[in-house]
Amino acid sequence: RSFSLLVGHSAMAKGGTCASIWEKRVDEALRAHLHRDAVFLAERMHAEAPTSRSAHALARAHYARGDKASARHALLGHETSECRYLLALCCYEMGKHLEAENALLMKGDANNVPKGAAGYLLLGKICKASGRVADAIQHLKAAYAMDPFLWSAYEELCHLGAENECKELLELNAMDIESTPAVWKTEAAETNHEPATPWMATGAPSTLRGGTAKTGDLEPAYKTAGRYGDPSPSLFVTPVVGGDRTDNVQGMGGHPEGTGREPTGNHSMRSNFAAPRAPSRRKFASNIHPRKVAGALFQDETQTPLAEESRESTSPMGRERLSLAVSPESLMSPQDAQRQHLFRNVASAEEVMSIQQALGLVQSMAEAYLLLCMYHCQEATEAFLKVTPNQYATGWVLCQVGRAHYEMADYAEAARAFQWARQVAPHRQAGMEYYSTALWHLKRDSELMYLARELTTLDRWSPTAWCAMGNHFSLQKDHSAAVRFFQRALQLDENFSYAHALCGHEYFANEDFDKAMACYRTAVRIDVRQYNAWFGLGQIYFRQEKYDMAEYHFRRALTVNGRSSVLYSYLGMCLHRLHRLEEALALLQAAIVADPQNPLAKFEKANVLVSEGREEEALVELEMLQESIPKEASIFFQMGKICKRLGRLDKAVVHFNTALDLKPSSLDASLIKSAMEKLHLDDAHEEAEF
Questions:
Q1: Alpha carbons 424 and 434: distance in angstroms, whole number
Q2: 323/370 Cα distance (integer angstroms)
Q3: DSSP summary character for residue 477
């Protein structure tokens, strides 16, 4: 009898029952986060019966423990979809992008990517890391079309600047939110009962605030007051040049290749979705510095979400093809592909409503996040008000609101939003680099020091924490120490483009232009939409009087952030040096419209008017600017020079003396005294600069 039991046990092991037991134990260990036990049990399983199933279990255990090399080694030679996906994931995180892509695209078949939406997301990340931005956009779009809850795919699209693609996807989501799925309609017809609510009968979208909305209305109903501080709104007209980023820059003589990504060709379907526009409010920050241009005024899962029978013949891209040829007859509309996934196995109207309500919440977040990534910051802050109070008072939303205020140079409101985020999520690290920079602009040294120390105490392996420490030392004018901390952040994450830009700012402050340029170039290589780095490169060329190169880099920055008053100001200054006065004046006027409180734009506009021989108009501009900034010596110095040209020598002397009384730097004081000594000389052609 004992011998018979042994033989039976061996037969069961060969039949796979033993393997199932081992796999169950491995899963239990992984769910309990007992990674060492999971590795031990998976090794026993794989040694007992070396199959693709056991190899996948072993690789999962190694990956959960952080040993990606061992996980990759266990998966080599196995071609099941689970093994291919996990192998590609390990290779991607190890920097082996070609091997990762080959694992996903078996025999180059882009329609047989494992893990469905997750697989296309990983493929898009691989293409992005290897510099194929157009392919990355296609794969990421396919991933989000297949699963509208796959937020990271949409986030990557926004980071790549794929505005049109994101709007198309949002329109498809809106169709799902507004309409009753066919699978539920069929069930309702068979059971002869009406939908549970009038909303389901009419197909009108639900609103998360409990109100009603018009069917098909994609424009969010914004409110005019924030959830904290209730800042007083004021009307603001957006300049024409700040609307469509690419077209406007081309209209100014810009470069169409500066959009931050490769062209993706003509779309077979154009979305009618319109991003919301609302009156904007901009607040002037008195603490200004050219260092940071952001606000400076000077300066185990389902194989695929599609139905099994349509997996081979359906392109997940829907209306746009992948890089490989797919017959038009095999294409399925993205909304149908989404519905098959979202409403599969839905048993009741309540479940349908829950899915659509959850998708509506994601839709609200997606609309607001797209506006933020396109630097429509005022509209983004208002769009985030669409979400419920519980959702608004979360760390992620508050950090996005803080980032929007930061980009608008409203550093006080940004700091308040970030402070609220830290109260809600005290251990959050993401986004704190912008909080530290906002404190840098506000000159709040004690708060910045406390933030840096707290972040490094919470996680010394966080690059964001070391960025905050670098900003602290930068505020202390210890640029060498700041560089060391930024370099420490880059040791932890070499692809942290913002840290590269900050490091470049420190080198620029030390006038080490070669190292600053290397940092800026690395930043734009990692993230072509890092406009701070494009601005930094333009500043270097401007200081070196290479105005043609400076113009190019300022325009590249504007293709990313077409609403920055600072960028328009510097581009106008550059064109002034190139004696293109009409263009310079138009750009400076656009800068003033974008931010009426920008002193640099008004000051440079007066200089251009002087160059055109319009001294009276220039003097009016400077007098208005002097009322808002009464202690700026450069304004009085320029007013004195204009009065001298107009023959009003008495007023010129008054303005020169006022400039000296404001105690400018030694270099500026010498320029003022020199101008006073030459007061009675003809200097109509003098081009002394302050």
A1: 17
A2: 26
A3: T
